UniProtKB/TrEMBL annotation:
Gene3D superfamilies: Cytosolic phospholipase A2 catalytic domain (3.40.1090.10). GO terms for molecular function: hydrolase activity. InterPro entries: Acyl_Trfase/lysoPLipase, NTE, PNPLA_dom. This is NTE family protein. A motif (GXSXG) lies at residues 61-65. GO terms for biological process: lipid catabolic process. Residues 30-188 form the PNPLA domain.
């Protein structure tokens, strides 16, 4: 496995790619992590893959990775993907709820996604898609890959306590990243080559970056998520992690374009070297 996690591409990692000249002929699986607005870097990677003639036949995603993965599996253009996230407000006053456990009623976004997925079915997608969500009642993760599409997508991205859980088959589901922020499992063993995109990288912080309880809580949560998924990250054939995303807030819509450009520019450089 080769990992690119900084702006300098290490020559010792590139030396492992003497068999990568036939990458375009391999069956490729794409795994997309959760990470809020930072997930726009996934779209940048997809654009870079397209420009390099690389196409995944199978996609697995959690949270924002599930949403981006669904759009990719559906054949939507990069412009369509960015438009969805730019034009859909995260917080609408008429989406606020006091009847459900969450500030925003996640189900209210159904109509927005119906415009992009009119058939509302996994089987209607151009690529095989796996979406992971967390069953809050059973304390289990569950993969969705057939049947109804939109509600599992909404569930996978329903980050508590901001967004309310989504009821599926009589049970409450929420953000897939709670239990599996990097859903490698459905792809492993089913493709020749796995490309992973992790937008929840953890790196060293200066002491003054942890000044209050909120910052400490956020840091601890990030460390726990990263630790749980670390072994899976290392199992990818090619893993991209984007350190430059750390300054973009998870719910900061102003960072959409920046996160996309970080992903595109970095992925373009990595793929240039891999395919050279």
């Amino acid at each position: 496995m080769s990992t690119f996690d900084s702006d300098n591409l290490p020559s010792k990692a590139l030396s492992n790619f003497n068999t990568m000249n036939d990458l375009k002929s391999k069956s490729i699986g794409l795994v997309l992590s959760g990470g809020g607005v930072r997930g726009m870097a996934h779209i940048g990677l997809i654009q870079a893959m397209k420009e390099h003639g690389i196409s995944a036949k199978m996609v697995s995603g959690s949270s924002i990775g599930a949403l981006v993965g669904a759009l990719y599996a559906n054949g939507n253009s990069v412009q369509d993907m960015l438009s969805l996230f730019k034009e859909t407000p995260l917080f609408r006053y008429n989406f606020l709820t006091i009847l459900k456990p969450g500030f925003i009623d996640t189900d209210r976004y159904f109509k927005v996604f119906k415009e992009y997925f009119p058939e509302n079915a996994f089987d209607a997608l151009e690529r095989k898609l796996y979406v992971v969500a967390t069953n809050l009642q059973k304390g289990e993760q569950r993969y969705f890959s057939e049947g109804e599409l939109i509600r599992p997508l909404l569930a996978s991205a329903a980050l508590p306590p901001v967004f309310s859980p989504v009821e599926l088959e009589g049970e409450l589901f929420a953000d897939g990243g709670i239990m599996n922020n990097f859903p490698l499992e459905p792809v492993m063993g089913n493709v020749d080559y796995i490309i992973g995109s992790n937008v929840s990288k953890v790196s060293e912080l200066y002491k003054n970056a942890l000044k209050n309880s909120w910052q400490i809580t956020g840091r601890v949560t990030s460390l726990m998520i990263y630790a749980v998924n670390r072994q899976k990250l290392e199992s990818c054939d090619l893993l991209l992690e984007f350190q430059a995303l750390e300054k973009i807030g998870v719910l900061d819509r102003k960072g959409i374009e920046k996160a996309y450009l970080v992903g595109y520019e970095y992925a373009s450089r990595v793929l240039d070297d891999v395919l050279e």
